[in-house]
Specification:
single chain, two-stranded antiparallel ribbon, 312 residues, Arc Repressor Mutant, subunit A, eight-stranded mixed β-sheet, D-Maltodextrin-Binding Protein, domain 2, 12 strands, 12 helices, alpha/beta, 22% strand
Length: 312
């Protein structure tokens, strides 16, 4: 069995189309088809249900896909580890990030790029459940998600910062000049919030319930960009993580006011698959996260030393 044939098979399973898989592998379609037939012959198994086109994987094909991803991940990690000693880490860092942590992810990626300038960085916006699946399937090197709410399984965790929540409104809102806003007050305003399938919204629902109120937003969206768009319109209010001050910056038109009664925070951190030995990319990412935490970089930024004030 050739590693190349295994990579061809995994690509076909992902694309579910011979033509697209061949294009991704930079070979002709007949070459790809012949290689996968040879792979099946080597294993003495039928891995793919074929008609005039790709239809599905057989049960044996699904098992080979799971093992194959682990084999390729280990092979690439071995290759990277050997080459990294010669010229430094190369390749692509694949990082899954929950939407709520997107405003702060550049703090970690900036530190990583400084230490490993030859590495390309790919940041994907993903739900926490998608991060779990992608880590299990060797599709990403690490994730940034909540550590203390709906925690992931079979992962190593490295805290980065505490997320708490602010009331966002226009400068002429009736709460605009308040030093803080109670949750019971926030729910009376026309809110635009994330939809219920998002973990951040489930957290907000739980905090509101603790305060004895229910969140009834006029508008819901599965993107914080959608929330930001409605905030900029001026009519709508929102409840967002405090890290959004890093994105909005100083503004005469927008206020970000701490929420109180109750005050809540949740821990955001890096998660890596619980595997030994660690892949070089995951090990480098862990080193970076530990350095960021040791130097209190997130704490300095979120305390206002390097970021705009929440109210003003």
């Amino acid at each position: 069995m050739l590693i190349r044939h295994l990579k061809f098979f995994i690509t076909l399973a992902e694309e579910q189309h011979f033509g697209r898989a061949a294009e991704r592998c930079h070979v002709t379609q007949p070459t790809l088809s012949h290689a996968i037939r040879k792979f099946e012959d080597d294993l003495n198994l039928t891995l793919i249900i074929r008609g005039h086109r790709f239809l599905a994987l057989t049960p044996e094909g699904e098992k080979v896909l799971r093992w194959g991803r682990q084999i390729i991940s280990d092979y690439d990690s071995l290759h990277d580890d050997l080459k990294g000693k010669e010229r430094g880490l190369t390749g692509c860092l694949r990082l899954g990030v929950i939407p709520a942590a997107m405003p702060s992810v550049s703090v970690l990626t900036d530190q990583f790029e400084t230490s490993h300038p030859l590495v390309e960085i790919e940041v994907r916006s993903m739900s926490s459940r998608a991060i779990q699946k992608a880590l299990d399937g060797f599709e990403i090197d690490g994730g940034i998600t909540y550590l203390d709410n709906e925690p992931l399984q079979n992962v190593r965790c490295f805290p980065l910062y505490a997320e708490h929540y602010v009331f966002a409104c226009s400068h002429d809102d009736e709460f605009a000049n308040r030093p803080e806003v109670a949750w019971s007050e926030a729910v009376t305003r026309p809110l635009c919030l994330l939809s219920g399938d998002m973990q951040n919204r489930r957290i907000l629902n739980a905090i509101a319930a603790e305060a004895g109120v229910t969140l009834t937003p006029r508008i819901v969206t599965n993107s914080f960009l959608g929330v930001a768009s409605h905030l900029r319109k001026g009519r709508w209010c929102a409840i967002v993580p405090n890290t959004f001050a890093l994105v909005f910056g100083p503004s005469r038109d927008l206020r970000l006011i701490p929420l109180a009664h109750p005050r809540h925070s949740h821990e955001i951190g890096l998660v890596l698959a619980e595997r030994m030995p660690q892949a070089p990319m995951a090990r480098a990412l862990q080193d970076c996260a530990e350095r960021v935490t040791r130097d209190s970089i997130f704490d300095k930024i979120l305390s206002g030393n390097e970021a705009p004030r929440l109210v003003g």
